[in-house]
Amino acid sequence: MNVLKNKLQIMKNVQLSITLLFCLILAQITPSKAQLIGPRVSQKSSVTQRIGITDITIEYARPAVKGRQVLGKLIPYKSRFPWRAGANENTTVQFAHDVFIEGQLLQAGKYGLHMLPAKGQDWTVIFSKKNEAWGSLGYNAKDDALRVKVKPENRSTHQEFLLYHFINLSETSATIALDWDKFRIPIKFSIANPQELVINDFRSKLTGAYGFSWQNLTTAGSYYLKHNKYLKEALLIADRAIRTYPKWDTYSLKSAILRKMGRIKEANTLDKYKINTIANENELNQWGYYLLNQKKFEEAIQIFELNVKKHPKAPNVYDSLAEGYMMKGDKKKAIRYYKKVLNMNPSKFLKNHASQQLKKLEGK
C-alpha cells in the first residue's frame, strides 16, 4: 500500500514539474516579446544625410496615393490632431548636432515630426520632444520643441509613395523635402557653428592616433587656413606635420599659413627652401603652373628652368618650359623647346602635345 502511495506521489510531482515548465516556456513567448510582424501596407523607410560632419536621419512609413485625394481628404485641413507626416508610428528626424530650422535653433536630438496643413497658406511643421507615439494621436503641444512655418510647393510629377529626401545640399546646409502626390513640403536647415564643430572634432582626434599621420595634420591645418580660423594653432599643426613628413606638401601648408598671417618674408624664405631643396620634378612643375595661372610668367619660367637644370633628361620639363614661354609671348623660345621635346623620344602624349603646339606656333 505504501509503495502504491509513493508511486502516485511521484507521478503527481512529475505532472507538476511538466506544468511549471510549460508555463515558463509560455512566459518566454508572450506576444509582447515575440510578436510576428507581417508586411505593412505603408512600408517602413529611412534616409540619412551627412552635412559637414553632422548626420541627419529621418525614419518614416511610406503611404501610397492609390488614386485617392490626398490634400483635404487623406490629409485634412481641419483636424483635431496634426498630420503625422507619414504613416503608422511617429515620423522621426534626428540631428547629431544643433541646427537652425528655417532660421530657428533646434538642439541636437531625435524628434517626432508633425505638420499642420493649411489650404492656400503656409504649413506649420512641428518638432516634438515625444518621438515614440503612434502617429499624431498622442500629440500634445506641451511637448513641442519647435514650430516653424514653411511654404508648400506644387510639383509637375506624381509621387505615388510618400518620400523624404535631401535637396540643395551645401557644406553647411540642406533642405529636407517631403514629396507626395503632386506637392512638396520643403524644410530648410543649416548646421549651427559648423566650422567650430569640425575644428573641435579635429582637435579631439589629433590628440590620439590620428595625430601621427601627416595627411591628417595637413587636412586639419588646411581647414583652419581655408576658413581663416585659429591661424596660430594651424601653424603649430603645420610644424607637427613637417616633423612627421618634411616634404613639399607640409612645407607648402606652413608657407600658406604664414602668408595668411601676413608674415610674408618668412613665407618667401620657406618657399625658397622647399623649391631648391625639397621639390621633386612633379612638384616643381605644379608650382610653375600655379604661377602661370596667376600670370606670373617670369617667376613661372624661372621655376621651369630650375626644373630643366635639375632634370635635364626629362622631356616633360622642356614641354612645360616651352608652354611658359608661349604664354609669355616669346614664340621663338617656345618653338625651340617644343622641338627639344620631340628630339628626346617623349611619351605619345607629350609627342602629340608638342607637335600640336608647334603647328599653332609655326602657323601650319
Number of strands: 10
Cα end-to-end separation: 128 Å
Tally of individual domains: 3
Fraction of helical residues? 40-55%
Oligomer category: single chain
Number of helices: 12
Written description of the protein model:
The protein is elongated, with a radius of gyration of 35 Å. Helix 6 runs antiparallel to helix 7 (264-278) and helix 10 (315-328) packs antiparallel against helix 11. It has 12 helices and 10 strands. The termini are far apart. Strands 1-2-3-6-7-8 form a 6-stranded antiparallel β-sheet, with no helix packed on it. A 4-stranded antiparallel β-sheet has the order 5-4-10-9, with no helix packed on it. It has helices at 2-28, 31-34, 194-206, 214-226, 231-244, 248-260, 264-278, 281-293, 297-310, 315-328, 331-342, 348-362, and strands spanning 43-51, 54-62, 91-95, 99-101, 104-106, 109-116, 123-128, 144-150, 153-167, 173-191. It folds into 3 domains: 43-192, no CATH class; 193-278, Serine Threonine Protein Phosphatase 5, Tetratricopeptide repeat (Alpha Horseshoe); 283-364, Tetratricopeptide repeat domain (Serine Threonine Protein Phosphatase 5, Tetratricopeptide repeat), CATH 1.25.40.10. With 364 residues, the chain is of the alpha+beta class. 46% of the residues lie in helices and 23% in strands.
